[in-house]
TrEMBL record:
MF annotations from Gene Ontology: cysteine-type peptidase activity
SUPFAM superfamilies tied to this protein: Cysteine proteinases
Keywords of the record: Hydrolase, Protease, Signal, Thiol protease
Domain NlpC/P60 residues, every copy: 201-329
Protein name: Peptidase P60
Pfam families referenced in this protein's UniProt entry, alphabetically: NLPC_P60 (PF00877), SH3_16 (PF18348), SH3_YKFC_2nd (PF23795)
PANTHER family, per the entry: GAMMA-D-GLUTAMYL-L-LYSINE DIPEPTIDYL-PEPTIDASE, MUREIN DD-ENDOPEPTIDASE MEPH-RELATED
Family: Belongs to the peptidase C40 family.
Signal peptide positions on this chain: 1-19
Organism of origin: Actinoallomurus iriomotensis
GO biological process: proteolysis
Amino acid sequence: MLVALLALSGVLTATPSSAAEPATAYVDVAVATAWVSPGLDRPVDAPAVANPADIRKWTADMTLAQRAALVGRLETQALYGTPVRILERRGDWVHVAVTGQPTPRDPLGYPGWVPARQLTGSAGFAALRRSRPVATVTSASAWLSTDPAGRHREMELSSDTRLPVLARSGSAVLVATPDRGGRWLPTRDVRVGDISAGAPRPTGADLVRTATMFAGLHYLWAGTSSFGFDCSGFTHTVYDLNGITIPRDSDAQKAGGRPVDRSDLRPGDLIFYAHDHGAGSIHHVGMYIGDGYEIDAPANSATEESPLEIVKVDEHRYADEYAGAARYL
């Protein structure tokens, strides 16, 4: 169905596509959270569905019980400037497919519902994404500012946010944005260039270095930002930061990699856990970091918070549900 030039809440006009493809819009908040269906947000979720979104306030204000109750409500998250394909509109909500998050559920990307207010359309931004080098945030977060010195901050961006580069000036990079023109990012916080095009393949040590940068971060169901990850959102993002796109969910991550024997684990390999003592459906993934240890984002319960941790594989909370490992390097 042709959805080109679809107007959303009087704000978004999607970038036109061919009749065979849905139109494209862009995330214009630091992190857009995609829901299972429209209207599942609670009063405590107001910072997550607003524009601007405040993910730090959202996660800080939730009780453990409220955070645990996100299971079944959320699908995934998308970062500032990420293209999404528009599938459907229902009131003030838009059904989208998040590009860059492969899934068997939809060849266009990971599906979910986001508030229309968190999306924008920009043919100019789309053209710059195709023609300019990319600045990828590689630090845990980075501030988007109106000046190169960073004195006038506007938005805190998550690691793995990607924006087209317009110019460089010493300690700062001028980037294009989908909704506010040119803005500045500190050079120390970004990598300029497309790591997936002609760059050396990352090593296991590269992946481990990226993964351990987030140690101690709290768990967030459906999280794919450095403000909170779920288990597969964490492994997906670590690989993405190193130029390798893997599926979004743990079961698809296992299916997409090369099987690895437990005795041959190497840093960067993914370790999977399944119900029924490892024989059932995959429900968790971590990353092997060497010397018998892995790093993962364990789910928190309604009574106990479990931050992203480094733990011995043999002593993992799901040790008796080990279901194999996969390699992407």
